[in-house]
C-alpha cells in the first residue's frame, strides 16, 4: 500500500519558484510582474502580519470577538488572492479575512464581523464575496454553485474558495469539486495545508500523502505548491484562473504552509500538540523573510519602505477599530430580522418581546 501512496505522491511534486534563501530556482515559471506589483505583494504581506499582531492584542483586550491567527500563511493567502480580478467571487473560510480585506471589505467591517455584528457581513457594492464560512468545507459546495452560475451567464469570472487540511476530509469538499468538475465550472479550490486541524496532525487526517491528489477522483487539475513561496502560489493560481475562464474546468491547489499562532484565540495551546522543532523548521521557511531577501537582492525594497508600511498599517488599524466602535451595538431585533424573510411563530413572539424591551 505504501508503494501505491508513493506512486500518487510522485505525480504531485511541490511547485516552487523561490527557495528558502529567496533565490529563484525555477526561472522558467518566474511570473512577469513589474517592480510595483512585486512591492504591492510584499506590502500586502507585511500589512497582514501587522494586522495579525494587532488583532491578537485587540482580542486579548476584549475588543474583538472570534479571531483565527494568520501569521505564517501570508504567501498562501495573499499570493493566491493576487492572481484574482476584482470581479471574481471569493468564498473564504474563517481564517481568510486577509483575502477579504484585499478584495475590498473595509477593515472596520472585518472587526465587526469578528464581533458577530451583522454590519460586518454586509459587503459593499462591487465586493463579490461571502462572509467567512465557519462550517468546515461548506464553502466548497457553494463555490461549485457560484461558478456554475458564472458559466451559464457566459461571464469571464471565477469563484475561488479556501479550506484547510482538515476541511479536505469533509463530504462537502468532494461534492463541491466533483460537481464543479462535471460541469467544467470556473472554480478554484484552495486547500491550505497548515499541517493541523486544531490539534489533529495532517498525518492522522488522511492516508493520502498529498492533498493535491484528491483532485484525481474528481477528474480535475491538482497541484501541490510551496505555500511559503508567494510567487509559486501566485503563478499556480493565475494558471488555474486562465484554465477556468477558458472552459477547462476547476483546479485544486494544495498550499504547504503553517500557522505560527494558536488555532483561534478561544484558548487552544499549540505547545500541547506541536513541538518546538517543528515550529522552528517552519519559521525557517517564513514567506516574508524569503520574499524580502528576493526583493532586496533586486534592489526594489528597503527597511525604510517596510517601516512605512508598518506605520501605515498601525494607523489604519487604529482608525478602523475606532470606526467599528462607533457603529451602534447590534439589537436582538436586528439579529432576528436579518435571519429570516418570514419569521417562524416562535421568533415572531421573541421579536415582539425584544421590540418592546428595546423601545424602553
Ligand atoms: C462541519 C464542522 N465540523 C467541525 C467544526 C469545528 N472545527 C472548527 S475549526 C476545525 C479544524 C479545521 O482545520 P483545518 O481545516 O485544517 O483549517 P485550519 O483551522 O487549520 O485553517 C474544526 C474541526 C466546524 N466548524 N465545522
Ligand atoms: Mg489546518
TrEMBL record:
Coiled coil: none annotated. Keywords: Oxidoreductase, Pyruvate, Thiamine pyrophosphate. GO terms for biological process: branched-chain amino acid catabolic process. It catalyses: N(6)-[(R)-lipoyl]-L-lysyl-[protein] + pyruvate + H(+) = N(6)-[(R)-S(8)-acetyldihydrolipoyl]-L-lysyl-[protein] + CO2. Residues 43-332 form the Dehydrogenase E1 component domain. Its cofactor is thiamine diphosphate. Its EC number is 1.2.4.1. It is an enzyme of class 1 (oxidoreductase). It comes from the Bacteria. The keyword Oxidoreductase applies. GO terms for molecular function: pyruvate dehydrogenase (acetyl-transferring) activity. InterPro entries: Alpha-ketoacid_DH_E1_comp, DH_E1, PdhA/BkdA, THDP-binding. The pyruvate dehydrogenase complex catalyzes the overall conversion of pyruvate to acetyl-CoA and CO(2). It contains multiple copies of three enzymatic components: pyruvate dehydrogenase (E1), dihydrolipoamide acetyltransferase (E2) and lipoamide dehydrogenase (E3). Heterodimer of an alpha and a beta chain. This is Pyruvate dehydrogenase E1 component subunit alpha. It comes from Halolactibacillus halophilus. The lineage of its organism: Bacteria, Bacillati, Bacillota, Bacilli, Bacillales.
Amino acid at each position: 500500500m505504501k508503494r501505491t501512496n508513493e506512486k500518487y505522491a510522485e505525480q504531485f511534486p511541490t511547485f516552487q519558484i523561490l527557495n528558502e534563501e529567496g533565490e529563484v530556482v525555477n526561472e522558467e515559471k518566474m511570473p512577469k510582474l513589474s517592480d510595483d506589483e512585486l512591492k504591492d505583494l510584499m506590502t500586502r504581506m507585511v500589512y497582514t502580519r501587522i494586522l495579525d499582531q494587532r488583532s491578537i492584542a485587540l482580542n486579548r483586550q476584549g475588543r474583538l470577538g472570534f479571531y483565527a491567527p494568520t501569521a505564517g500563511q501570508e504567501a498562501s493567502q495573499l499570493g493566491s488572492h493576487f492572481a484574482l480580478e476584482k470581479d471574481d467571487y471569493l468564498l473564504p473560510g474563517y481564517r481568510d479575512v486577509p483575502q477579504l480585506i484585499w478584495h475590498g471589505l473595509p477593515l472596520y467591517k472585518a472587526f465587526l464581523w469578528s464581533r458577530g455584528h451583522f454590519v460586518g457581513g454586509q459587503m459593499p457594492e462591487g465586493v463579490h464575496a461571502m462572509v467567512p464560512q465557519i462550517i468546515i468545507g461548506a464553502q466548497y459546495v457553494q463555490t461549485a454553485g457560484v461558478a456554475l452560475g458564472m458559466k451559464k451567464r457566459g461571464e469571464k469570472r471565477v469563484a475561488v474558495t479556501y479550506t484547510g487540511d482538515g476541511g479536505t476530509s469533509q463530504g462537502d469538499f468532494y461534492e463541491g469539486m466533483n460537481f464543479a468538475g462535471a460541469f467544467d465550472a470556473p472554480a478554484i479550490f484552495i486547500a491550505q495545508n497548515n499541517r493541523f486541524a486544531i490539534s489533529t496532525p495532517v498525518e492522522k487526517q488522511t492516508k493520502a500523502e498529498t492533498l493535491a491528489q484528491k483532485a484525481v477522483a474528481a477528474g480535475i487539475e491538482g497541484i501541490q505548491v510551496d505555500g511559503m513561496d508567494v510567487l509559486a502560489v501566485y503563478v499556480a493560481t493565475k494558471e488555474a484562473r486562465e484554465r477556468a475562464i477558458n472552459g477547462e474546468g476547476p483546479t485544486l491547489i494544495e498550499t504547504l504552509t503553517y500557522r505560527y499562532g494558536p488555532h483561534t484565540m478561544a484558548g487552544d495551546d499549540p505547545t500541547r500538540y506541536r513541538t518546538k522543532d517543528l515550529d522552528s523548521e517552519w519559521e525557517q521557511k517564513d514567506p516574508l523573510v524569503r520574499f524580502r531577501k528576493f526583493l532586496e537582492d533586486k534592489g526594489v525594497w528597503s527597511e525604510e519602505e517596510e517601516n512605512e508600511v508598518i506605520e501605515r498599517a498601525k494607523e489604519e488599524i487604529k482608525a478602523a477599530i475606532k470606526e467599528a466602535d462607533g457603529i451602534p451595538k447590534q439589537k436582538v431585533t436586528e439579529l432576528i430580522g436579518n435571519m429570516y424573510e418570514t419569521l417562524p411563530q416562535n421568533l415572531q413572539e421573541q421579536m415582539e418581546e425584544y421590540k418592546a424591551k428595546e423601545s424602553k
